[in-house]
Design goal:
CATH class of the largest domain: Alpha Beta
Number of strands: 18
CATH architecture of the largest domain: Roll
Order of helices and strands: EHHEEEEEEEEEEEEEEEEHE
Radius of gyration: 21 Å
Number of domains: 2
CATH topology of the largest domain: Nuclear Transport Factor 2, Chain: A
Number of helices: 3
Length: 281
C-alpha cells in the first residue's frame, strides 16, 4: 500500500569559517558536500574555490531543506548568501522572474553574479603550471611558451565548459591528446587538453551550456600525469585565463526592481537577524 508521509520545507540559516576548504567548512556545520557545491556554483564567477580561498574567510547562507517524515531528504534552493573572501564581501540574492519563472542570482544592487566565463573549468583543484611565454617543457626538455593553465586533478574529474558555446573540435589532437575546443560569443574560444574521455553528447557541432560537463581529466597525449591544460583565446590570440577580466551579464531590469528590492530587504533581515534558526513554511 502507498503511504503518504508528511513533507516539510524548512528555511535554514547556515554559517561557517574556512579552515582549509569549503567542503570541510560546510561539513563542520553538519551539512553535506552538495551544499558546498551549490554555494560554489553561485559565487563561481567571482571566487575560485581552490585558488582564492583564505583561512578565516566566512560565509552565511539561507537554504531551503526538505524533510520527509521528519528526516532530511534534499536541499532545495539557496535563497541568499554572504561570502567574505580576502576581506571582500560577496552577496547573492535569488530572484525568480514573475513573467518567465526563470531564476538568477544578483547582488543587492541588481547586478548579475554571472560573468561571460566561469573562473575555472574544474570545481575543486589546484594549479600545477601557469600561463607563461617561456616554460621548460616537461617531456621535450626545451623552453617554449605554455599558453594554458594546468589544473592537477585525479583521472575522471569532470571538466565543465566555462561558457555557452559551439564545439568546433572534439577528439584526438596529437600532443594535446584527447581535446575539446569551443567557440564562444564575443570572439572567445576555449580549449581543454589531455582528457581521458569526452562528456556525453560532446561532438563537433554540439552546443554546450556554461557548467556543462564536456569531458574528464586524463593524461592523454604529451603528459607526465593527470591534469587539465585549459586555454583561452580572444580574437585568435592566447590570453591568460587567470588574469583576464570578463564582462558581467546584464543587470536586473528596472521593471523588476521594486519586487526584487523588497525580497532583498526581507532576506537581509533573515541573514542578519535570524529569529528562529529553523522556520517551517
Amino acid at each position: 500500500r502507498i503511504i503518504d508521509y508528511p513533507v516539510v520545507k524548512k528555511l535554514v540559516l547556515i554559517e561557517g569559517r574556512i579552515e582549509d576548504s569549503l567542503i570541510s567548512a560546510i561539513n563542520k556545520t553538519g551539512e553535506q558536500d552538495l551544499l558546498a557545491l551549490m554555494l560554489a556554483d553561485i559565487f563561481g564567477w567571482d571566487i575560485d574555490f581552490y585558488l582564492d580561498l583564505r583561512k578565516d574567510d566566512t560565509f552565511r547562507l539561507l537554504v531551503e531543506k526538505k524533510y520527509i517524515n521528519g528526516r532530511f531528504s534534499s536541499y532545495e534552493q539557496i535563497l541568499a548568501a554572504y561570502f567574505i573572501n580576502q576581506r571582500h564581501l560577496y552577496e547573492a540574492f535569488r530572484f525568480t522572474y514573475p513573467d518567465s519563472s526563470q531564476t538568477d542570482y544578483f547582488d543587492s544592487k541588481g547586478n548579475s553574479l554571472r560573468r561571460e566565463f566561469l573562473k575555472s573549468p574544474l570545481k575543486y583543484t589546484r594549479v600545477s603550471s601557469r600561463f607563461s611565454l617561456r616554460r621548460l617543457h616537461p617531456i621535450r626538455k626545451i623552453y617554449r611558451p605554455h599558453y594554458g593553465v594546468d589544473f592537477a586533478a585525479p583521472v575522471g574529474t569532470p571538466v565543465q565548459a566555462t561558457a555557452d558555446g559551439l564545439v568546433t573540435f572534439a577528439g584526438w589532437n596529437g600532443g594535446a591528446g584527447r581535446m575539446v575546443k569551443i567557440k564562444h560569443s564575443h570572439s572567445y574560444e576555449t580549449m581543454y587538453l589531455h582528457l581521458s574521455r569526452l562528456g556525453p553528447g560532446i561532438y563537433r557541432g554540439a552546443r554546450v551550456r556554461s557548467g556543462q560537463v564536456i569531458g574528464y581529466v586524463g593524461s592523454s597525449g604529451e603528459s607526465t600525469g593527470p591534469h587539465l591544460d585549459y586555454r583561452l583565446l580572444y580574437h585568435g590570440q592566447y590570453v591568460n585565463p587567470l588574469g583576464w577580466k570578463f564582462q558581467p551579464a546584464e543587470p536586473l531590469g528596472e521593471k523588476y526592481r521594486p519586487e526584487f528590492n523588497q525580497q532583498v530587504e526581507n532576506l537581509r533581515q533573515l541573514l542578519l537577524y535570524p529569529l528562529p534558526l529553523f522556520a517551517d513554511y
